[in-house]
Design goal:
Helices cover 30% and strands 21% of the residues. The protein is an alpha+beta fold. The longest helix is centred in the middle third of the chain and has 31 residues, at 339-369. The radius of gyration is 30 Å and the shape is globular. It is built from 28 helices and 30 strands. The strands form six sheets. Strands 10, 11, 12, 13, 14, 15, 16, 17, 18, 23 and 24 form an eleven-stranded mixed beta sheet that branches. Helix 15 (321-335) runs antiparallel to helix 18 (405-425) and helix 16 runs antiparallel to helix 17 (376-401). The two termini are 50 Å apart. Residues 1-33 have low confidence and may be disordered. It has three domains: 2-161, no CATH class; 278-317 and 429-847, Beta Barrel (Thrombin, subunit H); 323-424, no CATH class. It comes from Mycoplasma putrefaciens Mput9231.
């Protein structure tokens, strides 16, 4: 119990609650009319020692919404755990009923790491208080209640029940884990994670090693593997076998004709599935809500971020340029194949297909395993579903094996024709929604009209000649800290400005910088010959871009834009000029003084700054640590905070709306209001915090630095395919690249792309670009990397030194500064970030690398 009192946030998984004085006071009877003595009542209570004793003298009912009563046989244990006071125990004998008050103070279910044993067995542990109303004295009993409803181990909402503490073997295990150093913690987490991956790859065979040569094409001798593992331990990387199972990029020895060279082989398949970190969930109020907090600004730091951050939507006519270009590249590649390359391609496609089907089939088998004996119909249906999938797999495998170069080229051409037909009709419209934030502005007037917004490259790629409209949603500066907000289009705190785009104002919006090819290396410089040939045209990128908005050009007249708020048109801005409109949209950023900055040091070289204690020793230690703050606008479709009844209108429209989202605990939802007469439920120290980095294992490449990773090694692609981008009429594929972080408590749905990661000083650290709900974290590309030397572990590859903003890294060739210098240096224009000019010499000293 001492351990739990120290957890960062008190866990609701296990706590014993003693009778409340309030309950005692409210139920005290000064003058009982009963003839029973105090001793008789105490004797009656003392005789209730077991479930059977209590059931023989009392009736049980579980009260749900609006007072509806359920029998125990219809009530799951987790329902009682969630709302113990809803379990009503009423004594049958009136004379005892009048003199004894019975209340269920708390309830506890038995949880395994990923399922609830109590819901399988139909039992729950109760903490029941018996109050003798004559002397106002209470006794608490711990009783096991049986005869409850059962299921396959899921909770009463049909969710997989998870107990993070069970993952460590109980409270003693957590205490041991906390005392371990980061490498020891990694070893513990990693061993469990690898066992899970092994069972995923070998679903029908337990505790069997995966053949990484057969599965991933990684041919390496035991001696080479041992040498790798020894050096990996030294530089802080995982073992060869473990890294292979995670889908990491790994070295193989390749004969070059003259000698043997160490080259890298990427996992050329869809991204490997990721699981969560139970360390992240320790102390969380609700495991299933550890993806973040919706529609609440819990402190001034988040408010500052909010007024500088926007939900943006770009609407465009689809021209399918990326898709057509990629198919043409496929044709060129297929034409170059001989029989060997064609055979390899077919084998690769079959491996991917089999892997995907195995995962689907294994998921169904796990569902079957959780069924109870009586579920014969469901079992038969699921077994039939497995047979259907096995038949589909067989048919698709045969179809792949039948292909020749010519049939594959024919397929590509057929797809191109379909896309060209759709393009020529010009009827299809697409949109890209994301999050963007003010980064910079031009200094050419006291009321600037040219602003620069940071976001993701995959959001900014929607800005093409086919753009037809842009919408910018801002939150008003008058929003209150602690206020529970509604969805964007329902809440009067938000305003949406929509501008129509045509040939006259098309140049007003442009992506001045995509973080592509920013160092003087290409993937082919490091990859094996086979993969280097395949990806000879590919490049490196970080998912970051800067968008230039020229509001003077954008606002053609007072007829090409509209403003709405809370479902109503706003007409008060229609007579304003471009300067005023820019000032309103940006919440007077240029004159308010709370300017963004960039963080010049790195967690990679000074991890202690962000190394959170899993157990609180003192508040002063927390204050010494750097918290990270993240805010964005994901789609509301996955906003699980909405109440089906209270928020019925918002629930109905949530698929087409957006929710403000931050990286905070769900416990703050609806509980942080500080309106007059109410001080709130939490201290200012608690509310002032942000959060920390994730302990998730599947993305992490630096074993002793939770939450940091080398993207090229650990996450070179997000999802199934490499990133594609068309620039200057040419479409290229890109490998995800650079130093990235994984945040704790931030994995919202689509739309959060582009969320900024900052510290309390409003210093920008990273931009969030990929959420993974199953891993309960995501990836954010860091603006600056000090570089990292792997001492030959990956051949010639080392994490490079770079700065995406200031462009001062060794061997760096592109940055935001470079883009401004190229476009504006000769025109005498300066920006807030570059008040002295765009040359490298003018960069502040703290952003110049020392080596």
């Amino acid at each position: 119990m001492k351990l739990l009192n120290k957890l960062l946030v008190m866990s609701s998984v296990y706590s014993i609650v003693f009778p409340s004085l309030l309950v005692v006071a409210c139920n005290k009877i000064e003058n009982s009319s009963s003839s029973l003595s105090i001793e008789q009542i105490d004797t009656f209570i003392n005789n209730i020692k077991t479930e059977e004793d209590l059931k023989s003298v009392a009736e049980f009912n579980f009260e749900t919404t609006f007072g509806r009563k359920k029998k125990l046989s219809d009530t799951l244990p987790t329902e009682i755990e969630e709302s113990p006071s809803s379990l009503k125990i009423t004594l049958k004998d009136k004379k005892y009923k009048d003199n004894i008050s019975i209340s269920v103070e708390n309830a506890r279910t038995d949880k395994a790491t990923t399922f609830n044993r109590s819901n399988i067995n139909g039992t729950v542990t109760l903490f029941v208080t018996f109050l003798n109303r004559k002397n106002n004295k209470a006794q608490t009993r711990e009783l096991i209640l049986s005869g409850l409803s059962k299921n396959g181990g899921f909770d009463h909402n049909g969710r997989q029940d998870v107990d993070p503490i069970s993952a460590f073997g109980g409270h003693e295990g957590v205490e041991k884990y906390v005392k371990s150093d980061q490498k020891e913690r990694f070893k513990y987490d990693n061993n469990n994670y690898i066992r899970t991956l092994e069972s995923m790859y070998n679903p029908n065979v337990s505790s069997q090693k995966v053949d990484i040569e057969e599965r991933f094409g990684l041919k390496i001798s035991d001696d080479e593997k041992n040498k790798f593992d020894q050096l990996a331990e030294k530089v802080g990387f995982d073992s060869y076998y473990n890294a292979a199972l995670k889908g990491f990029t790994l070295p193989v020895n390749e004969n070059t004709g003259k000698d043997t060279a160490k080259k890298l082989k990427v996992n050329d398949r869809p991204e490997v599935n990721k699981g969560p970190s139970y360390t992240d969930a320790l102390g969380a109020t609700d495991y299933f809500k550890t993806n973040g907090l919706a529609r609440t600004l819990i402190n001034e730091t988040y408010k500052t971020m909010a007024v500088q951050t926007f939900q943006v939507k770009f609407t465009y006519k689809k021209d399918f340029a990326d898709e057509i270009s990629l198919l043409k590249n496929h044709i060129s590649l297929i034409k170059s194949w001989g029989q060997s390359e064609l055979k390899d391609f077919k084998e690769d496609q079959i491996n991917k297909l089999e892997y995907e089907y195995k995962l689907q089939i294994e998921k169904i088998r796990k569902e079957i395993a959780t069924l109870i004996i009586e579920d014969k119909g469901i079992r038969a249906a699921k077994e039939k579903e497995i047979q259907s999938k096995e038949l589909k797999l067989k048919n698709e495998r045969e179809k792949i094996l039948s292909h020749t170069n010519e049939t594959l080229i024919q397929l590509q051409n057929e797809e191109i024709k379909k896309l060209e037909t759709r393009r020529d009709k010009g009827e299809e419209v697409g949109s890209e929604s994301g999050t963007m934030w003010i980064m910079d502005y031009q200094l050419n007037s006291d009321q600037p009209t040219v602003f620069y917004f940071g976001t993701n490259s995959h959001v900014a790629k929607a800005i093409t000649n086919n753009l037809t409209a842009v919408s910018i949603t801002r939150i008003k500066e008058t929003v209150k800290v602690g206020e529970k907000l509604m969805l964007n289009s329902f809440d009067p705190n938000f305003e949406t400005f929509t501008f129509s785009i045509n040939s006259s104002n098309k140049s007003s919006i442009s992506a001045i910088f995509h973080a592509t090819d920013f160092i003087d290396k290409n993937p082919s410089d490091y990859l094996t010959k086979k993969q280097a040939d395949k990806y000879k045209e590919a490049g490196f990128y970080a998912d970051f871009a800067v968008i230039e908005f020229d509001f003077e050009k954008l606002l053609l007249s007072n007829t090409n834009f509209s403003v709405s708020s809370a479902g109503k048109q706003v007409n008060e801005y229609m007579s304003h000029n471009a300067k005023k409109i820019a000032d309103i949209i940006t919440n007077s950023y240029a004159t308010r003084g709370k300017y963004i900055k960039f963080k010049s040091d790195s967690y990679l070289t000074d991890y202690k700054k962000i190394d959170r204690p899993i157990i609180i020793d003192s508040n002063s230690r927390l204050k010494d640590l750097e918290n990270i703050y993240i805010l964005g606008y994901p789609t509301s479709e996955s906003d699980y905070y909405l109440n089906q009844h209270e928020d019925a209108k918002q629930v109905k429209d949530k698929k087409n709306d957006f929710s403000l989202w931050i990286n905070a605990d769900s416990k703050y939802y609806g509980t942080t209001s500080t309106s007059e007469g109410f001080e709130g439920n939490y201290t200012q120290d608690e509310l002032s915090r942000g959060n920390f980095l994730s302990y998730q294992i599947g993305y992490r490449s630096f074993i002793d630095k939770p939450g940091l990773t080398d993207a090229f090694l650990a996450a070179h692609r997000v999802g199934n395919d490499l990133y594609t981008l068309t620039q200057n009429g040419k479409t290229r594929q890109y490998f995800n690249f650079g130093l990235e972080l994984m945040p704790r408590f931030y994995a919202p749905s689509g739309g959060a792309s582009g969320s900024s990661v900052r510290n309390k000083n409003n210093e920008l650290i990273a931009v969030y670009h990929a959420a993974n709900g199953s891993a309960r974290t995501g990836l954010a590309t860091m603006f600056r990397s000090p570089g990292y030397n792997y001492e030959g572990l990956f051949g010639d590859y080392n994490l490079p030194q770079y700065d995406l903003i200031y462009g001062t890294g060794k061997n760096q060739k592109r940055s935001y500064r470079h883009a401004l210098e190229k476009k504006y240096d000769s025109k005498g224009i300066k920006t807030k970030l570059f008040e002295s000019g765009f040359s490298k010499e003018k960069v502040p000293e703290n952003f110049k690398f020392k080596d």
